Amino acid sequence: MPVTAAPTTPVPTFASLFQAITDNVARVVRGKHAEIELAVVCLLAEGHLLIEDVPGVGKTSLAKALATSLECTWKRVQFTPDLLPTDLIGVSIWQRSTETFDFRPGPLFANIVLADEINRASPKTQSALLEAMEERQISVEGRSHPLSPPFMVIATQNPVEQEGTYRLPESQLDRFLLRLSLGYPGREAELSILDTQSTNDSMAALRPVVTVTEVLAMIDAVRGVHLADPLKGYLVDLADASRRHPGITLGMSPRATLQLARATRAQAATRGRNYATPDDVKSVAHAVLCHRLVLRSEAAARGLTPERAVTEVLASVPISIGS
Fold first, then answer.
1. Which residue numbers delimit the ATPase AAA-3 domain (predicted)?
2. Quick one: DSSP state of residue 184?
3. Exposed end of the chain (fewer CB within 10 Å): N or C?
């Protein structure tokens, strides 16, 4: 009797997993394909995401849809003026039975942390995120608690001119790999929103499409993307050009250069390549750099914006052959 081989389950590829995540998020966030892709790029580059825009354009929906698409732990924290650092980190509670303190972890110990309206909390509470975002650990009472990978903070904020907000300091802005602005949807997208989300069924029906193991495998693949020496030189030249730009008082830091390299690797991987090109750098440069640059007041008064400054920096640096 002939023996037939058991059917094998095909192994998901990087491209298929990336497509699954973006398609899943797009079921909730309509007409924002480029922004959704950049949000996933941020995850795969092991960075943190800041979404800034006016209320009501889908910032929280994008954050929740991305977190829900991953089969991992996630917590949402609504930032308010009375939120305390211990509300994020956790507290130690005295146990009379054992006469010891028992540490109760806070929401920062989840894989994905949704910090909703982060700039409504006080600077003291905002600073509680710094160690977790940079070092992937939390120190409590002299003990360091490592955070399980993947770890990502997705923060939303309203523009600083909105009443009741606190401006994020440069040190914390620099911890965010990307900053996105969603803007208003187009006509067709808004009609689709009316058809599909008037009863909030889209978010409730969303289910995870990738596991933690698959996300970690994708992150490992991104780490393996090759940056040629000429391309590394191009990144350093961009940093130098930003520091010499006459309209910029605070240019790219070494951390910004490293973050741009990580985002470039992730962008190349999502395009199906194991090597990066200058086009990958340019496609993520504005999202990586605009929130890091500080403009001179006189340049800003003349109409210079961070977006235009990044464009000028990119145009000022020639691309060497072989990059």
1. 48-178
2. P
3. N
